[in-house]
Amino acid sequence: MCLLKSVCVVLSADVPPVGPMDLPLSLLEMGRSGRFELITYLPDQPLPPQSTLPHGLPPTSLGLEREVEKRFLLDPAWLPIHDTDFAFQKVTERKVNVDSLLSCAPSPLHSGLSVVRDPTTGMLLDFTEVLLENTGLSAKNSLSLQRQPGPPSESLRGSNTNYPFLPGGMEELTLDQIKTRSEQEEEIDFEKDLLKIPPGLKAGMDFSDKDAKIAKPEVNLMSLLSTLENIPDLLPEAEEKEDGKTGEEAVKLPRTNSLEDLGIKAGKTDKSKPKENPEEKKKWAVPVDILSPCEDFYKRIPNPAFKWPFELDTFQKQAVLRLEAHDSVFVAAHTSAGKTVVAEYAIALSQKHMTRTIYTSPIKALSNQKFRDFKNTFGDVGLLTGDVQLSPESSCLIMTTEILRSMLYNGSEVIRDLEWVIFDEVHYINDAERGVVWEEVLIMLPDHVSIILLSATVPNALEFSEWIGRIKKRHIYVISTMKRPVPLEHYLYTGNSTKTQKEMFLLVDAAGNFLTKGYVSPAARLHDTSDRRPQKQMWIDRAVWLTLLHFLSQRQQTPVVAFTFSRTRCDENARSLDSMDLTTSIEKAEIHSFFQKSLSRLRGGDRQLPQILLMRDLLKRGIAVHHSGILPILKEVIEMLFSRGLVKVLFATETFAMGVNMPARTVVFDSIRKHDGTGFRNLLPGEYIQMAGRAGRRGLDATGTVIILCKSGVHDMADLHAMMMGKPTILQSQFRLTYTMILNLLRVEALRVTDMMRRSFSESHRDTQAHEKRISHLKQMLASLPPLETEGQLSDILPYYHTATEMQNTREALQKAIMESVNGLKALSVGRVVIVNNKQHLNALGVILQVSSDSVNRTFTALIICDKGNEEVAGKAEDSTSFQHLYNTALFIPEGPCSHTVQKLKLQDISAITVKTLKVIPDRIIDNYNKRQQPRFRADPPGQAISTATQELLRLAEANPGGVATLDPVNDLQLKSVDVVESSMRLRVLQDSLLDFNCVHSPTFFARIKERMSVQEELDRLLFLVSDQSLMLLPEYHQRIKVLQSLQYIDSSGAVQLKGRVACQISSHELLLTELLFENVLSPLAPEESAALLSCLVFTQNTQTEPHITSTLKESIDRVLSVAQRIGQLQRECGIAQTAEEFVGQFKFGLTEVVYCWARGMPFAEIALLTDVQEGTVVRCIQRLDEVLKEVRQAARIVGDSVLGSKMEKASLAIRRDIVFTASLYTH
């Protein structure tokens, strides 16, 4: 360490002051060398510095010891505030600095300096102050990407106090807009809705465009020359660019002999041009033709971001071209068609662009597999699942969709650098429980992120892509291929006799043709053997499996995946093959070596678990089982051995087909019926295709073999045809409201829950764009109509219109009820006199001649009296909606000679059924009328039957000019339902009220209101359709808001309170867990008891065993159930459909004892004996429980309960051990 030398220039004390004649000299010390120089200076100036180092030597670094002491022992930030440990006191006396608590970060500068330069020379001329935008933006107040990054600790997962980034397709609102925006507010068109006349003045401004009103400009030679003069002109480039369109149109003027034609045509094109709007006809989903080959692929992409050792298929090339253009794609193809190529290219492209990619998968096992595959290919790959976090700084992150949702809501900084999000297995959006997560993520993704969707073949890929394109306002390119790289052959196998042991019946060939012969043969064979004595089903199963597997083994058609829709049957089938050995001695050695190496990380006791010992024996013989009850590490060992071809027969449940890319030579279906949680049903075509698609290994097999076992009989041919040839399940919205979603959106003012609902796939049928176009058109129509007169006699015209409309609707409802009743149809039989009102007739009497047999659109042929000359429907007849017959009940009586017409009437044309009937001869009347419609018989007089009926009707009208008595639906037709009685009473009230209106006395009153009201009604209907009020989930949203307000998660204005902020942290069962926290249910419990109690949130099965638990735990379980009961009842009171019993029934306490003993350190082998739940399920529940404990710890931190937080940490540490938390084989 160098010591600083103090330097002083030695000057003699008795030197006289400087005189005018003295030389201006001074001494300057040079550095630290001891050398001086003589320098001159101006006498009027101050003395120059006397050393070249006026401040001494530059500072040097501290000694290491001193630095450590200063940084780690004396720095207050490192010392515990409340711990007065003597050891710390000895090192340093801590000084209390109260002011440090008041320190706050300096506010950002709102302005900066900008340099002004000379544009020609570039010389610096001046500095000007400029205002800086977005300086105050942060993650706590803005959705903008311009905001400052948050602290590094929050960069990955974000924080629940952060705003999310603005979702793509939503416009960002300013603070003022947010304050003023309300649901009732109408948008103002600042071009058309401007007020023109100021208050108190008679005239005002005219804002209309004068030029637009000129209908036909005068055409003369000079005007045409002026139009054409800018074609040959050498205009500057800038002007040409501005008027590019005009120039182009001018150049393309057609040749014509008439200058006038030219002028008129030009005028027309100019006029029609502004009306065209390409946005209106835009389709967001763009289907890509995969049949057209990409011959110029390598020309268009000379330097691809990634190269494969094989030639790409056409659909892969098309997808890569779209990715290079930074477009979003939806790729729908069969299993093993090569969809992963698209994902790989996106990852390579983001690495080339130095951006990031997120790959999401529906299940954790698939995430782990993809991590291993991509890690080997790209290297720079990270993994984020509930319990694992590996290389989070990588350019490619693999995660489950739930974690991506959480990152989007919490404003993670990763989103800034994101270029692609790849959604694998998108058809999982149909999952009732978790499908909503996909929709939330797709809606919340910001604008700069492109989307890649990979899915099995789905019928409505275009519709789904159209929805995404519309909410994101970007094109989605749909690339769909039905081609299978390895075609499948589907067989039936009976194997119940020596004849059929080595016989399979081809049902669907490789070309996809259904062969009926393949069905008839096995059905006949089974019929031959059906008279044998019955055997036990288990022995039949065992015999069929043994014969089939021997047969397939001889034909070298292994590996085989046998799909069995029951975990118990999977285990039984595998155990029943104890006599079968499918591996060679070399393979046995390889299996043994791999098995031992994989399980070497387990503790000694865990290696001796019954399930592991059983599986070891099965694996050595080439047999394995794969379902959710198997230990995760064991499942991974089985998957790896299967992919290496060492497992010859794998008994698996449906989950094995979900994304896990493990193709086999043959797939066998044990049955085609499964239990879906509510009951047994046949497999859906989509499920069958997904599982059958595992057959056929690309590059190894010419065809894949799919076999359906017929053990107890051949399945119905129609069922087989529907399952094999039917269309896969369409993508359907599973969108539902959750409390977490509502709270996460309520805490951000600029985002509304209704926006999320409107953008969901379930609301994709709302064509808002077309509606809004029609609304603006209707508003223009309404403005162009003459204003409504509501003075004098017409003062009650609007109430009259509404009354008359209600009356007509009530009458139509009554008529429908009459038509659907037996008595009503009897009354409307041949000969019944009715009153007819339609475009042609007003209160005219008619008699029914015929009733059609069509029950849906029933018509009545009737003879109706009319004026002479009014026999046919006139073109300009008054519309039936004029309601004239409602207030004018007087029957029609012809002014001149009475004529007649025969017409087919609809139900709405018959306004009343009278009590009168006539004796008529329908056939004669209809034949005579039809005959007289022919031109040569038109002058003939009507026949006797028609004349008699017409005279009877006329006599009836003249005898009752005020109206004939009609049949009452309630009293006469005996229709006693509540609706009919209410409608009938309402109709009478409305009829009586019509007499009080004055407007009926004005003869032309209705023409004035009808057109305007029909436009207004359509406008109101469309405004309702585009408003939030028409959202399907809106009532449920209001119900859930009521629940949150009652529990004080939000206040009356919708602001999120402390309880709401806590609930935002919790991903499932948020209400119950938050209530337990605030009611201190967990406080009296030990860490292991807390873990045991919270296991009810993650365990969903029913168990037969009764857990033996402590009294404290029993009390806590009762408290949990009472809290759940209270929440369930509150939800029911607020209108939510779920009953309190259903809500409470979600929480199962079957694993409390298991978790309690595990947290206290009991070995896994012993806790497995405490329950009938399979080992794999226990492991998965404890893993999920760890995630719940982390969430509770975070929630406790928000509440400020440090004791509970540390308790949760201890509980988490207690369960994170041994086989339950062994690292995945894929990640190491």
Count of helical stretches: 44
CATH class value of the domain at 488-725 = Alpha Beta
- CATH architectural group of the domain at 488-725: 3-Layer(aba) Sandwich
Helix-and-strand structural type: alpha/beta
Mean pLDDT: 79
> What assembly state would you assign to the polypeptide chains in this entry?
single chain
In the sheet with the most strands, the strands line up as 5-13-6-12-11-7-10-8-9
Going by CATH, the homologous superfamily of the domain at 488-725 would be: P-loop containing nucleotide triphosphate hydrolases
What do we call the CATH topology of the domain at 488-725? Answer: Rossmann fold
Q: Determine the strand fraction and express it as a percent band.
A: 5-15%
Outline the low-pLDDT stretches.
1-13, 211-217, 228-281, 529-536, 874-881
Radius of gyration: 43 Å
Give the beta-strand count.
27
Reported for the largest beta sheet, the result is: 9 strands, mixed
**What overall geometry do the principal axes of the alpha carbons give?**
globular
Percent of residues in helical segments?
Answer: 25-40%
The end-to-end distance, rounded to whole angstroms, is 48 Å
